[in-house]
Structures are given as C-alpha cells and as structure tokens.
Amino acid sequence: MSAIIEVQNLRKQYEEVEALKGIDLTVEEGEIFALLGPNGAGKTTRLSILATLRKPTSGKAMVLDKDVLRYREEIRQEIGIVFQEPALDERLSARDNLMLMALFYGIPRKKARQRAQEVLELLEITDFADRAPRKLSGGQKRKLELARAIIAEPKLLFLDEATLGLDVDSRRNFWDEVKKLSDKGSTIFLTTHYMEEAEVADRIALIDEGNIIAVDTPRALKERVGGGLIRLDTEDNEAVLDWLENQNLEAENSNEGLFIVSNDPSTLLPDILSNIEQKVTRAEIRQPSLEDVFLKLTGRSLKNGEAEEVESAKNEWMK
Amino acid sequence: MQGFWAVILRDLKRIWAEPFRLVSGLAQPLLYLFLLGSGIGAATQLGGGQYLQYIFPGVVALSLLFTANFAAISIVFDRETGFLKAVLVAPVSRPSVAVGKVCSGAIQALVQGVLLLIFAPMIGIYFGPLQLLLFVLFMILSALVFSAMGVAVATNFSSTEVFPVVLNAVLLPMFFLSGALYPLNTAPGWLQKLSYIDPVAYGVDLMRGSIMGKFYYPEWLSLAVLCFVGFILIWTAVKVFEKGEEI
After folding, report:
1. Do the Cβ atoms of B91 and A76 come within 8 Å?
2. Domains (ranges, CATH) in chain A?
3. What is the pTM of this model?
4. ipTM reported for the complex, 2 dp
5. Edge to edge, what strands does the sheet with A66-67 contain?
6. Domain count of chain B?
7. Mind listing the pLDDT tens digit for each residue in A2-24?
C-alpha cells in the first residue's frame, strides 16, 4: 500500500477563525478513511483543500502524489466528490445529469452515454434514470449524487457529510453502496458527525476545533476507553455522583444519566447497586462507542449541539 | 476543450426543456417595436412606418442585450443550487467555463435576434444578401459582448433575487442611452457624450448602419470598442472564476 493523501502541517485561516491548526495526515490507497467530529471542527475545510476547492493558508497537501496547489486539474481528473448539499441540475433527467458530468470529465460522447448507463446499473437506479432530480426522494437523490461522483471512475472518492438529512434506511443503503465501491479498490475519504457512519471506516481521525486528536482503527479507538461504560439513572443523580467521586470512581453526570468508566463494569455495577441508597431507575452496561471515545478525549459530547452545528457547516461552505 | 462544449450543451439542453422562455422573451422587443414604435413614430417627422424601420436595429439590440445578460443568471442559479461546485471540481479549466458561459448566452440571444428578423419584412425592411450578412455579423459581435457583460456581473452574485434587480438597473440606462429609439446626432450634447461610454450604442450603430448605409460613429471605432470591451469583460469573468475557487 502506498499513501494516496499526505498532509503536512496544514493550516487554514479564515478572516478571524483558524479552521485548521496545522495538521498531519496520511491516507493509504484502498482504505476508507473517516474524519469524525462535531460540525464546525474543520472537516469540510480539510476536505475542500484536498479536493482542490480551497487553498490552504500554509502547509503541504499531496493528493495522488501531486501537490494540491500546483496540479489542480490533474487531481480533479482522478477524484470524485459527494457534497453536503445537492450538486445536480434539478431540471435535467438523472441520465442527462450523469452524461453531462461525464462530458465535463473529458469522456467522449458515445462513451459518456455508455458510462452513465453503467453507473445507473451499478447503483441500481435505472428505474428513475429518466426522472429529474427534483422529482426524486432524498435517498434516491443521494444515490444519484454518488453516481455523479463516480462517473469518471475516480481513484479517490470524497464524501462530505454525504448522508446529511437522510433517514436511517437510506443512510444504510447509501453506505452499502460505498462499501461495494471500496471493495472494488476505490479509496474513500469521508467526513461525518454520525458515529455509526464512521464505523464503516478502516481508520478514523477524530477531530475537534481544528485539531486531530486521535487517528486509529475503530476498534483500537474504542479500546482506548477501556473496559466499558456503566449508565445509571437514579432518583437523585447529584447525590450518587458525590458518592461515586468519594469512591474515586471516574463518573460524569449528563442529561442522559450518570456515566461511569470502568475496566471491569460487570463487577463494578452490582457493587455500586448494593452500596447506594437512592432508588435506581435504570442501569446498563455499554460497550464503548466512538461517542465515548470522543467524550473521553475531549470531555465533550459529539451529539450535543448537533442542530446548531449543522448550520455552521453550511456557513463554512458559503465562505 | 470538451468542457467548453459541455458548458454550452448543458445550457442549451435546459432551454430546449423550456421552449416557452424563448417565445415569451420575444414579447418585450415586439412591444417596443409595434406599440411604442407606432405611437411615438406617428408623432415624429419621420412618420410611423419609417420610424419603425429606424428603431428596428435598436429593438434587435434590446433583445440581444436583455436575453444575453439574463442568460447569465444560470451562473447565479447554479451557484445557489450547488451545481456550479460539481462543475468547478471537474477537470475543466476556468477559462473554458467562463468562455463557454459567454458563448451559450450569446447563442440564446442570437436565437431570439434571428426570430425578430422574421418581422423585418412586415415593417418594410428587406435585406440584401450582403446587408444581411453584415447585420448578422454585428449581431453576433454585440451578443458576445452583452453576454460577457452578464457573465462578468453574474460571477459576483450569489442570489437569484438580487441579480435581476441589479441587471435591470444597469441595462435600462444603457439601452436608453444607446440611441436605439432616437437619433444620437440630434440628442442634447451631454447625452451624446454619455453615449460614448455605452457599448450598446456602438452595437446599435453598427447594426443600423448596415441597413441604412450611414454610421454615427466611425465603423472601425465601433468594432474596436466592442472587441476591447468584450475582451476586458471575458478576462474579468475568467479572473473571478479563478479566484472563485473558494466557493
């Protein structure tokens, strides 16, 4: 395997905000690589620089062994992108959209028609090939966006919050297709703030406030949290928290209840239950999720503020 | 090069999907020609019929000016819908996108202009072959310049609501100043001077001259001004597209 993306000390300064604070990153050929973090963490900025849409303030970024500042068109020839927002002509049919994009990538007319058909078949969307995107459902549209992105058989596929606003089924469906592409050898670089989506990745970079805080496989990341988590809800969480802290246990009170990190939760839980006086309304043991990893590394929840963060991601694009 | 054609092809496909726009676009110039023209013409020394012939090139210019400029709204629209991003991330050079947009706007304008030519015999204008050739050549040149104007302006806008308002505010004075509806040589001095900075005036004069055989500006000056302005505008548009990488 060789590196398909190499980033060194990449910075991006907007007028007042430093969106990227000097990051290093390597993505290997053939892997699925995910940037996971709350919106506003600089995910879109990073992806845009790698996809030649924005220029870094400083630092070096190589995509497919080419410098993103000097070889924009060469890189563009080899990459495909699914943006957060739609990027289709709403009035042309799905097939015409794909054909047109093929032409933009320099594929000759006859071959473009053929290629459009191939992609439609690959993603199993031939049924609505002749409908305009404005008449398609959210999930269908996203699949068409994916089709558009892979029309020129890119070596590297970028997915920027590609399933934003989709229901669970459509999302799963979308990722199934992405996995198929990956199995065929495409390298995939995605950004998301949905933990379960990042699970499809071979490696995940957790990012927060313009910094990368960890890069590893999903499994290794979860192991960092240790054994597991106990979630506890009682009639008086504050009091229980005090008690837990007196016992030198690592605990946190959130609006979803008390969370206790432990190397051996299955022994600890009965122990706690037999010792506290408060009535317990809920007790469970959870295997650590990426959410927990994020919580542990940053002290903040990935979920919180999702709604407002979605807005800020949009603003980020507008710049 | 193929990217350039793809830009044009895509715009034309859209027009084809909505042919009604072409027909409705004819309404404005025809209103000027037959309603305004007949009314004002009857009150001029020229008389109704001759006045219609006089303003015909002006009305063609009006049609080219507005159609070509408003065609550029597709750029603003594409930016709004996100389609522009898909194009800009494709391996198409920025000049091809800009020049493709200019040409596609000019083509749309020319289709309208040619449709208007059908009305020429109705008001007593009969083109000789050479006249027609010259007239169409000047139409093409004007359409390209007007379209470049639209593209240069559109590249700076991201709202399809603001763009038409701004465009109207710019185009109407240009049209009224151009001598499309009245002879510049009898206009007040300040108006004549102002018309020198109006590229539309040169386009109108070239087209009118090719029919009437008499030009207000020297022909070489008109050609030079139009080519120069067109070149500057296209250059501006390319620059904005290149800088606009950061969308």
Report:
1. yes
2. 3-222 (3.40.50.300), 227-287 (3.30.70)
3. 0.80
4. 0.81
5. A18-28, A3-13, A58-63, A66-67
6. 1
7. 888 988 888 887 777 777 777 78
